[in-house]
């Protein structure tokens, strides 16, 4: 909880003010009964209208003071709580943004969503409560207890006979509660997961009429959430009855032994009555007590989940100073892989095995290979989404692990296999690659990507809204926008991951033609010989190993696998 | 002054008009909306009436016990301790222990059952929401962010959950105490009771003033939370692109903006709702002063006795406390209403229309006809995606769709699958209007390989079995072999039992496509839709799958979008699409004779 609560620090003044205002309010509430007693004793019973007026006026003044501090407290408490939540969410999100891709594999999206919303909400509301009402119950209880001790320590001691037992009981409950509530939040993760999956795959669910199947899957996760929530809440519900019962029995003990003292003459009846009254007042605050313990356990469970993220130290991308790049950048080679091997974390299978090759500046390399040969992974390593298990990758003669990440990625234009557009306008999506890009730049990029004409034909042109993941665009349109997004950066290195698969031959030919003017070094994952032929060299991968690297002619001569690929494409394609 | 308008720099969320509007609509839809929302929740709660009644009885029991305890203690002090009579005391104490035990038990069980009722209600609402969601038309999902919809089933449901857990019992016991005290007060002095009632209108007005604001603010807050959820989901799902383009700072900024909207609405919602207990306390005190003042005056005149006033002031306090609690509950209930309204608003969306005139066990022959079909996506402001498209594919035929990207090929597929309804024209299956067929009938006899292959977080077995739920493991392996997926599957650490994650990277895009094809093999459909089914698969593998696909397509009506000329050349009919229109259609032979676009295409490819 410590890390999470350190986010209250910037708001310690508003928090203190809220706290003081709460104290003022509480003290007024404590004084009130005294004033009321005065009104009754000196005013009403003595039939003195002047006194009633006088104390009545004071009562109203106090009431106004309490009212005002209460209202102002509202502002400060809610400012503190909301700002705390705001900062915490920002911190979590920033941290998540710094994750390496490998860390994302450990924390699926759904899990991160729950932590950023539901978990923050839990802690935030406890903070608000603690600045508003939380102290009231403990203060009332402690206050009453002290008063009872002042009146008659011996009798008051009886009120405490159950305390050790209660302490153990509460300790166990809170410990279990934190565990149970953590479980509840994890169940919520699962609910989020199934939801997200179904929204992403809605077409498939509908196509195969799996509505009922998915519903029952969702019922299953919801049911687990229900069961665990019930379990956690029911256990916390034990607190109030147990506290009340123990306290009431203690009260009876005080009453019994107190009455013996009264009989002995060692205590006054009035003392006994007073102690009993204070005890009754204590029990009055117990339901609030139970509520607080409940809320705190829940907040603690959520805090632990957030801290799991905030305290992550490995698996975070390092941001090095741009100056850390040594000046002796060579430009004789653009990209070099040296004995690079890779396997995804927590898997046993190597995706890339001892991959070595060199690319000269301005060269275009086609990467080919069977499905699952490691083509996409190879591109991912260049972007440093993942670190090679062994071996080194060099860009401009410099190990990429020495490059500041932002600098490295800024010279690379990347077109992923799946287009991944975002909610927003077409302009926003293309200029994603270059913030604040001018309209001409966007147009130049889209023209090159062969999508400008299409966009121009939309009634709203570049302002056309794109739904999440580009749902309202055709596959080819999405791919071309995703290409334009990379081209606008005018990068030194362009990585295209099979990103023209949905283009028709005519559009694709025009696109490659337009790309020839680019001076960038290009790595193009492709299935098509036609595209590969145009490249300077072809890198052929098989089960993670480079089995051939050279021109089309060379490979056709030497590589059986390559020949097989060429053969499979003997008859050409149509504009389909 | 500035602090009052913009405390801590928080811009106001509600304009004067907002508040005024909610006043004007007083008799209009808004309160009704609340009432409706509450009624709908109530209906679900009410399904567990027996338990609910048990809870209410226990609340009555615990209220009685909690009054009886102190009463007996008072009695004991007055009658035994004061009079130094100790003989009966142990018995009384035993009695009290029993009372307190019953109190503890009744408290525990009322909460125990109430939690059950509340969570069952939440479960019903949440699964109801999900079930409804799955039956909404695809067009509904095109317009919304996933994360925003997710927020409704989680964050919004949480507000309802929190309220149901506690508010129900509290509201009921407050009303109980209120009625009890009111009766006692009335019997003591109707006149003073009337005086106490003076503040009730004030309380009512104050509560209205506040809830008029908080009601709207809570809704805003939930909406802001939903928007934030939407942004988080989308950004993290697309993290690869964020990183590749080094846009971390940009998304952080965007997050911060959405986050501060949440902070701002949250601030105002919390602040205003925080007013309620303070206002109530204040009014209590005023009420007390009034009773003391006017009561004192009345006592002089002899209208009431002093003793009555003294007792009465105590009751007046007791009377206002539950009122106070009720007003507090108003806020919790309002926040729950805000959440529930967002849930119900989805549940009020019209589900996909489903025809039912034709028997659902109707066996399709595979005859597909489009008659003058025009279509336009709701979200796209573009001109029609399909314009007056007509064609007829007979059972067992293979139709190839040919044309540039964006020509409307995928849209035709989506319409055959009935993901969308046509705007104009008719689609007929076996001569029956698609509107008269149940979706279930239709889709259960179709198989799809969609452009974006999607896998669920489940084992490979389960993912392929998605095509037909009763497929055996052997059938699945058979299908995987045909789809050329078997080889890579057995190399995975857990083979067919390997659990895939939809955003994980255990398998490549091409392998995902192989699994989608295996899924279609398992489905054994009458109509087969293949939309770029092999686009991410290397051509060597593709050739192998193609042979299997050819076997699969035999005897089934198939629609194919593909680059491979072979596939297109093997088709019985070819449809050439251009900007949403079908410009050529016919058999290979016919199209050659027309010597149009298709023939040209082939010539360019060097076939003719």
From TrEMBL, chain A:
The keyword Nucleotide-binding applies. It comes from the Bacteria. Residues 17-298 form the ABC transmembrane type-1 domain. InterPro entries: AAA+_ATPase (IPR003593), ABC1_TM_dom (IPR011527), ABC1_TM_sf (IPR036640), ABC_transporter-like_ATP-bd (IPR003439), ABC_transporter-like_CS (IPR017871), P-loop_NTPase (IPR027417), Type_1_exporter (IPR039421). GO terms for molecular function: ATP binding. It holds the Pfam family ABC_tran. It is found in: Cell membrane. It is a multi-pass membrane protein. Signal peptide: none annotated. Its main location: membrane. Keywords: ATP-binding, Membrane, Nucleotide-binding, Transmembrane, Transmembrane helix. Gene3D superfamilies: ABC transporter type 1, transmembrane domain, P-loop containing nucleotide triphosphate hydrolases. The chain crosses the membrane at residues 15-40, 52-76, 126-149, 155-174, 238-258, 278-296. CDD domains: ABC_6TM_Tm287_like. Residues 335-568 form the ABC transporter domain. This is ABC transporter ATP-binding protein. The lineage of its organism: Bacteria, Bacillati, Bacillota, Bacilli, Bacillales.
From TrEMBL, chain B:
PROSITE patterns: ABC_TM1F, ABC_TRANSPORTER_1, ABC_TRANSPORTER_2. Residues 53-335 form the ABC transmembrane type-1 domain. It holds the Pfam family ABC_tran. Residues 368-604 form the ABC transporter domain. The chain crosses the membrane at residues 50-73, 93-115, 167-186, 192-211, 282-300. Keywords: ATP-binding, Membrane, Nucleotide-binding, Transmembrane, Transmembrane helix. It is a multi-pass membrane protein. SMART domains: AAA (SM00382). The keyword Acetylation does not apply. It comes from the Bacteria. Its main location: membrane. Signal peptide: none annotated. GO terms for molecular function: ATP binding. It is found in: Cell membrane. This is ABC transporter ATP-binding protein.
């Amino acid at each position: 909880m410590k890390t999470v609560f350190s986010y209250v620090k910037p708001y310690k003044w508003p928090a203190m003010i809220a706290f003081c205002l709460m104290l003022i309010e509480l003290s007024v509430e404590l004084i009130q009964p005294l004033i009321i007693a005065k009104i009754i004793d000196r005013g009403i019973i003595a039939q003195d209208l002047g006194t009633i007026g006088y104390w009545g006026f004071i009562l109203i003044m106090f009431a106004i003071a309490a009212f005002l501090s209460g209202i102002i407290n509202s502002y400060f408490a809610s400012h503190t709580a909301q700002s705390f939540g705001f900062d915490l969410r920002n911190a979590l999100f920033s941290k998540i943004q710094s994750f390496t891709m490998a860390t994302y594999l450990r924390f699926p999206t759904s899990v991160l969503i729950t932590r950023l919303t539901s978990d923050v909400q839990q802690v935030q509301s406890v903070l608000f409560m603690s600045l508003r009402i939380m102290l009231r119950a403990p203060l009332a209880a402690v206050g009453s207890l002290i008063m009872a001790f002042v009146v008659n320590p011996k009798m008051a001691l009886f009120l405490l006979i159950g305390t050790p037992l209660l302490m153990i009981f509460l300790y166990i409950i809170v410990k279990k509660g934190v565990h149970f509530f953590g479980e509840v939040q994890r169940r919520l993760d699962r609910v989020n997961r199934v939801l997200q999956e179904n929204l992403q795959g809605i077409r498939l669910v509908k196509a195969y009429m799996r509505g009922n199947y998915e519903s029952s899957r969702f019922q299953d996760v919801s049911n687990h959430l229900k069961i665990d929530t019930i379990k956690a809440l029911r256990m916390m519900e034990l607190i109030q009855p147990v506290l009340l019962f123990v306290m009431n029995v203690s009260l009876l003990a005080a009453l019994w032994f107190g009455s013996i003292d009264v009989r002995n003459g060692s205590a006054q009846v009035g003392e006994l009555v007073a102690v009993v009254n204070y005890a009754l007042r204590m029990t009055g605050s117990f339901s609030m007590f139970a509520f607080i313990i409940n809320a705190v356990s829940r907040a603690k469970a959520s805090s632990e989940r957030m801290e799991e993220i905030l305290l992550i130290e490995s698996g975070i991308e390092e941001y090095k100073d741009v100056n850390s790049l040594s000046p002796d950048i060579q430009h004789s080679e653009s990209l070099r892989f040296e004995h690079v091997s890779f396997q995804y974390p927590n898997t046993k299978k190597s995706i890339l095995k001892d991959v070595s090759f060199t690319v000269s500046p301005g060269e275009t390399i086609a990467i080919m290979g069977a499905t699952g040969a490691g083509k996409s992974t190879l591109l991912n390593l260049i972007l440093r989404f993942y670190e090679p298990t062994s071996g080194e990758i060099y860009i401009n003669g410099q190990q990429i692990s020495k490059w500041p990440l932002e600098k490295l990625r800024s010279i690379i234009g990347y077109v992923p296999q799946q287009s991944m557009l975002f909610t927003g306008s077409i302009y926003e999506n293309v200029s994603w690659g270059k913030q604040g890009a001018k309209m001409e730049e966007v147009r130049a990029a889209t023209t090159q990507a062969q999508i400008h004409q299409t966009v121009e034909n939309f009634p709203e042109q570049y302002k056309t809204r794109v739904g999440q993941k580009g749902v309202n665009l055709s596959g080819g349109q999405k791919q071309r926008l995703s290409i334009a997004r990379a081209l606008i950066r005018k990068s030194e290195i362009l990585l295209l991951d099979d990103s023209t698969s949905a283009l028709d031959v005519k559009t694709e030919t025009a696109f490659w033609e337009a790309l020839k003017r680019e001076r960038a070094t290009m790595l193009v994952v492709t299935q098509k010989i036609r595209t590969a032929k145009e490249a300077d060299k072809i890198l052929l991968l098989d089960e993670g190993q480079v089995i051939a690297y050279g021109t089309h002619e060379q490979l056709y001569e030497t590589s059986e696998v390559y020949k097989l690929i060429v053969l499979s494409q003997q008859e050409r394609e149509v504009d389909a | 002054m500035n602090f009052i308008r913009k405390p801590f720099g928080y811009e106001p969320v509600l304009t004067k008009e907002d508040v005024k509007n909610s006043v004007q609509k007083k008799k209009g839809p808004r309160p009704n909306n609340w009432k409706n929302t509450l009624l709908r929740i109530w209906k679900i709660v009410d399904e567990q009436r027996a338990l609910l009644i048990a809870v209410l009885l226990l609340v009555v029991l615990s209220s009685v016990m909690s009054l009886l305890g102190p009463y007996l203690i008072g009695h004991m002090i007055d009658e035994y301790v004061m009079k130094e009579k100790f003989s009966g005391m142990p018995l009384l104490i035993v009695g009290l222990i029993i009372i307190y035990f019953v109190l503890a038990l009744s408290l525990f069980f009322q909460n125990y059952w109430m939690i059950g009722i509340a969570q069952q209600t939440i479960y019903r609402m949440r699964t109801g929401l999900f079930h409804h969601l799955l039956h909404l038309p695809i067009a509904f999902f095109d317009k919304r962010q996933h994360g925003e919809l997710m927020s409704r089933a989680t964050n919004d449901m949480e507000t309802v959950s929190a309220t149901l857990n506690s508010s129900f019992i509290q509201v009921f016991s407050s009303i109980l105490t209120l009625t009890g005290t009111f009766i006692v007060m009335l019997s003591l002095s109707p006149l003073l009771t009337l005086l106490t009632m003076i503040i009730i209108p004030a309380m009512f007005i104050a509560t209205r003033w506040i809830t008029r604001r908080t009601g709207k603010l809570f809704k805003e807050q939930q909406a802001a939370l939903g928007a934030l959820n939407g942004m988080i989901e989308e950004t993290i799902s697309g993290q690869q692109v964020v990183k590749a383009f080094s846009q971390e700072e940009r998304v952080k900024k965007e997050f911060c903006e959405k986050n501060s909207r949440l902070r701002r609405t949250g601030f105002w919602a919390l602040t205003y709702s925080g007013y309620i207990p303070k206002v109530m306390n204040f009014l209590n005190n005023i009420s007390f002063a009034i009773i003391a003042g006017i009561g004192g005056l009345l006592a002089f005149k002899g209208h009431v006795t002093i003793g009555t006033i003294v007792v009465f002031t105590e009751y007046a306090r007791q009377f206002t406390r539950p009122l106070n609690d009720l007003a507090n509950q108003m806020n919790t209930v309002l926040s729950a209403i805000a959440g529930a309204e967002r849930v119900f608003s989805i549940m009020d969306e019209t589900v996909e229309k489903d025809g039912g005139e034709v028997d659902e066990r109707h066996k399709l022959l595979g005859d597909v006809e489009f008659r003058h079909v025009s279509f336009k996506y709701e979200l796209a402001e573009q001109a029609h995606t399909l314009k007056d498209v007509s064609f007829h594919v007979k059972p067992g035929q293979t139709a190839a769709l040919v044309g540039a990207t964006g020509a409307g090929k995928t849209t035709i597929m989506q319409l055959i699958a009935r993901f969308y309804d046509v705007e104009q024209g008719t689609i007929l299956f076996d001569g029956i209007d698609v509107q008269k067929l149940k979706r279930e009938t239709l889709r259960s006899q179709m198989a799809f390989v969609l452009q974006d292959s999607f896998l669920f977080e489940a084992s490979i077995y389960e993912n392929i079995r998605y095509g037909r739920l009763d497929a055996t493991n052997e059938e699945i392996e058979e299908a995987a072999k045909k789809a050329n997926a078997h080889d890579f599957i057995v190399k995975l650490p857990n083979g067919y039992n390997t659990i895939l994650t939809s955003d994980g990277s255990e398998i490549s895009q091409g392998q995902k496509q192989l699994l989608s094809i295996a899924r279609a093999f398992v489905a054994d459909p009458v109509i087969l839709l293949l939309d770029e089914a092999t686009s991410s698969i290397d051509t060597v593998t593709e050739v192998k799958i193609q042979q299997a696909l050819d076997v699969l397509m035999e005897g089934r009506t198939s629609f194919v979008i593909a680059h491979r000329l072979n596939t297109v050349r093997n088709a019985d009919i070819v449809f050439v699409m251009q900007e949403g229109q079908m410009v050529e259609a016919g058999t290979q032979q016919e199209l050659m004779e027309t010597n149009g676009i298709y023939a040209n295409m082939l010539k360019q490819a060097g076939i003719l």
